[in-house]
Design goal:
246 residues, alpha+beta, 7-stranded mixed barrel, two-stranded antiparallel ribbon, 14 strands, globular
């Protein structure tokens, strides 16, 4: 279901109390299912008559794979300035969103269709919070930020408006940093080790980033989360400074 936007942004997102209550629902969900682990090296794509390098094409693997602090073995990104790094070692996308996009795009989508490394079930943007920590096989991972869709998803499906559509719905997926390296398997679950006390959901962070851009109080609340990625921290810090100086 697509989010409905009102005067205060996404319905149900008008107050911080509501954001925290939504985030707290994960405390009752101890193990989340992994539908697939997907990897791929960057390839050349053509978009608007230009050649670009992209690691968007991912395919599911079988058997165990090593997860390091930067990525899965055998995986790669085409633009290391905006993708990858310790804060974005693993890209996650919820399988529950596939049906919506299949209808919008008129396509049947295979696992890895959104360039994600891990396709999950039971880990939606309104349930997961920045700073939440999970056991994933031998590895330990932590949520760092929502995913910020770029033009390469438009290039992948030939739909120029697709990045804006992803932002509008809030069906962005998110990134994980790796706190402990180790071997993981597609049959492993993601088990909640620690739910972040602030309870700032990815949905709320998306709301502040893409819709409620002049909400200084909301932005500061997100900045108070120490585990926020450095790139989103930089963006919000600059935006807050502009708001306070106006």
């Amino acid at each position: 279901m697509k989010y409905q936007l009102g005067a205060n942004g996404m319905d149900g997102m008008a107050s911080m109390d509501n954001v925290r209550s939504v985030g707290d629902t994960i405390s009752t969900i101890r193990q989340m299912k992994v539908k697939g682990i997907n990897i791929g090296k960057p390839v050349v794509m053509t978009y608007q008559n230009k050649e670009i390098m992209s690691g968007f094409h991912k395919t599911p693997i079988e058997g165990r794979i090593y997860l390091s602090s930067l990525n899965f073995d055998g995986d790669g990104q085409g633009d290391l300035k905006h993708h990858g790094g310790v804060d974005k070692a693993v890209c996650v996308y919820p399988f529950e969103r596939y049906a919506y996009w299949e209808q919008e795009l008129g396509l049947s989508l295979a696992l890895g269709a959104f360039g994600e490394n891990v396709t999950t079930e039971g880990m939606l943007e309104d349930q997961i919070c920045i700073g939440d920590i999970f056991q994933f096989g031998e590895a330990v991972v932590q949520v760092s930020q929502p995913r910020q869709p770029c033009y390469k998803i438009a290039a992948r499906y030939g739909v120029k408006e697709l990045p804006a559509m992803v932002q509008e719905t809030g069906y962005t997926g998110y990134y994980l940093r790796v706190l402990q390296e180790g071997w993981v398997n597609p049959e492993d679950t993601l088990s909640l080790k620690q739910h972040h006390a602030a309870g700032i959901t990815l949905q709320y962070a998306n709301q502040m980033m893409f819709h409620d851009k002049e909400n200084a109080k909301g932005i500061q609340t997100i900045l108070d989360v120490e585990e926020l990625s450095s790139s989103w921290r930089d963006t919000f810090t600059k935006r807050l400074g502009s708001l306070l100086n106006d």
